[in-house]
Amino acid sequence: MAVHYSEKKDLFPLAGGCACGLIRYQLTRGPVLVHCCYCTACQRQTGSVLGLNAIIESSDLTQLPPAKPAVAGATSPIPAGLVPAFATSTGAVSAAHDEPNPEPTRICVPTESGLGQTIVHCPVCYTGLWNYYVDAGSQFAYVRVGTLDRPWEIDPDVHIYTRSRKAFLTINDGKPQFEEYYPSRKALLREDALERVQALKPAIDKWKGDLRAALSN
C-alpha cells in the first residue's frame, strides 16, 4: 500500500507553480484532506476528467519568488521553454515575465449553488492554481495537485461526484466513494487534520455570518 502523504515526513514544504513560472507557491505542511472530484464543473474548469484538490489552510500556502518555467519530472522539475516564432505563428503572445513581486489573479465564476467559486490563477499564463469555495471562504485553499512540482506524492483521500465519472476510469484504491458530496467531513479526517479544521471553525463561522448578512441586504 502506498504511503500516505501525511506520513512522508520529508515531503513538506512542497513547492508548485504555474506553467510559465511567474506564480510559485509552497505548502508548508500536508493537506487536511484531498478530494478527487468528478463533477462536471471540475471537468469544465480543468479541461480534464476530474479535479484533484488538496485542502489546506491558506496560512500554510505561501508564495515564492518567480522561477524559470519547468514541468514535473520523476526526480526534479524538467526545464521548459518556448520559441517566440511558434507563439507568433499560432497567434499567441509569449508567456514572458519580469515582475519580481507578482500577484496572482482571482476571478469568481458561477456555480450550481448560485454563490460562486473563486479561482486563483497566474495573470500571464492563466494556469489555475487553487480555489476558494463557499464552505470556508479564503480560510482554506483547494490546491490543484497537478500544479505541484511532485504531484505523484499526493493521492486522494476520497472520491466525490462519482455519478459523473467517465466510464473508462476505474477506482481501485479502496478510498471512500460518494455519488455526490459526502455527508460528513469529520468522518474522513485524520485526528490531526480534525484538530486543524476545528481551530479555524470560529473564523469560518464569522465569515459565513458576514456572508449571510451581505446576502440579506
Strand and helix layout:
Blueprint: E1 14-17, E2 24-27, E3 33-37, H1 40-46, E4 51-57, E5 61-64, E6 70-71, E7 78-79, H2 84-89, E8 105-109, E9 117-121, E10 128-132, E11 140-144, E12 158-160, H3 191-199, H4 201-216
Parallel strand pairs: 3-12
Antiparallel strand pairs: 1-2, 2-5, 3-4, 4-11, 6-7, 8-9, 9-10, 10-11
Q: Could you characterize the architecture of this molecule?
A:
With 217 residues, the chain is an alpha+beta fold. It has a single domain (5-216), classed as Metal Binding Protein, Guanine Nucleotide Exchange Factor, Chain A (Beta Complex). Helix content is 18%, strand content 24%. The strands form three sheets. The chain has a seven-stranded mixed β-sheet with strand order 8-9-10-11-4-3-12. It has a three-stranded antiparallel β-sheet with strand order 1-2-5, with no helix packed on it. A hairpin with a 6-residue loop joins strand 9 and strand 10. The longest helix is centred in the C-terminal third of the chain and has 16 residues, at 201-216. It is globular and about 50 Å long. The relative contact order is 0.20. The mean pLDDT is 95.
Integer tally of domains? 1
Number of DSSP E strands = 12
- Rough outline: globular
Based on the structure, what is the oligomeric state of the protein chains?
Answer: single chain
Task: Calculate the mean pLDDT score and round it.
Answer: 95
Strand content: 15-25%
In the CATH hierarchy, what is the architecture at level 2?
Beta Complex
What is the CATH domain class?
Answer: Mainly Beta
* Structural class designation: alpha+beta
Low-confidence stretches: none
Family: Belongs to the Gfa family.
Protein name: CENP-V/GFA domain-containing protein
GO molecular function: carbon-sulfur lyase activity; metal ion binding
Keywords: Lyase, Metal-binding, Zinc
